[in-house]
Amino acid sequence: MIAKKLINRYKELKQQVPDCILVMQVGIFMQVMNDDAHTIAELTGLQLQMGGDVNQPVVVGGFPHSGLNKYVGLLVREGHSVAVALQDEQKERHIREIIRVEIQKL
Fold it and tell me: What does the alpha-carbon distance between residue 56 and residue 89 come to, in Å, rounded to a whole number?
């Protein structure tokens, strides 16, 4: 089961980058939720699961950090802007930065 604190943190970060697909690092995994999870699943076949509580369910997907370049590359090639929230190595579960990857329109 996914922790409510993690869900809330994802939602907070998503508000900072509403125009991007948000991929958030959680340990050695990258997590996506709700609409972002559906978008990635449609393109890659990523398996999704339900999390949260009964009254406020959340769709969750994830992949190993080692697959980050693959997934971000695919999303950008498909025309999506992506924001990657990376953790601080020294402070577990603390987001150190958000990196935006966008396609430039010519």
Answer: 31
